[in-house]
Amino acid sequence: MPEFHISVLGSGSSGNSTFVSDGSVRLLLDAGLACREIERRLRTLGVSPGHIDGVLLSHEHSDHSKGAWRFCAKHNVRLIATEGTYRALKPLPDKPVDWVRARARSSVKLGRLTVDFFPTPHDAADPVGFRLRRGKLAFGHVTDIGHISDDVVNGLRGCSAILIEANHDVEMLRDSDYPASLRHRVGSRWGHLSNDALASYLERRLPDGVRHIFLAHLSQQNNHEHLALECCLAALDRRGGRAPKLHLTYAGRPTPLLRLSEPRMALDDHKQGVLEFA
Ligand SMILES: [Zn+2]
Ligand SMILES: [Zn+2]
Hints:
Elements: E1 3-10, E2 17-21, E3 26-29, H1 35-44, E4 54-56, H2 62-65, H3 68-75, E5 78-82, H4 83-88, E6 99-102, E7 106-110, E8 113-119, E9 128-134, E10 137-142, H5 150-155, E11 161-165, H6 170-174, H7 180-187, H8 195-204, E12 212-216, H9 225-239, E13 245-248, E14 258-261, E15 264-265, E16 275-276
Parallel strand pairs: 3-4, 4-5, 5-6, 10-11, 11-12, 12-13
Antiparallel strand pairs: 1-2, 1-14, 2-3, 7-8, 8-9, 9-10, 15-16
Helix pairs in contact: 8-9
The chain binds zinc ion (2 copies).
Residues 59, 61, 122, 124, 144 line the site of one zinc ion.
């Protein structure tokens, strides 16, 4: 049975990167930490950096891409990104890397893993979210979104686990000492997702099969872990049903490796079509 192993190596404005493996294909989703730091954090999970098969980029902002060139060049790893993201990456690499062109609303096959790309609402050249699928398992990754668009809702359909942004508390952002232009950018429909906007998604539009949610990209200035958690827990409570497990993510350390296996039908519940989750 396929199984995903997932660890968020780092998350937040200082750098984002997530490790995912289906047991044979090993990927980094974003590489926004220094190459050496990505290598160090992978090793703490027992993963050799040389065994990574691809680096997927959501967009070109440096907190998602700063280690990408170096990591790909050093370890001879494919960089998988949309053309807009690839062209906007700076600085250019000293050594060319193997680029796989991805397109929003299309898919790339890597071994037995399929990666679906969908557009995200963010002020970047050609930003995308990812859905990684194998068998009945799917993991969705969407961060840096100014709002929950229909593409985001569709992109996360069928997922058993998702990583999604919980960037800021609306009041903390409003009262922050950020310059007005930055406050406006972060809070706009092309900026970052607030706890309240995430909560509204969780309450009304979260797919039923989601068992794990990683809360990502929390602002150190304009959010607190307890605010994000309380907001999301209250939303899941209003939603009712079996609540998924919430996982915090960290700027300075990886999350423990999560093993995600396929949902299986419980024999006694088969007639009712009730799923039992391992
Ligand atoms: Zn960004
Ligand atoms: Zn970012």
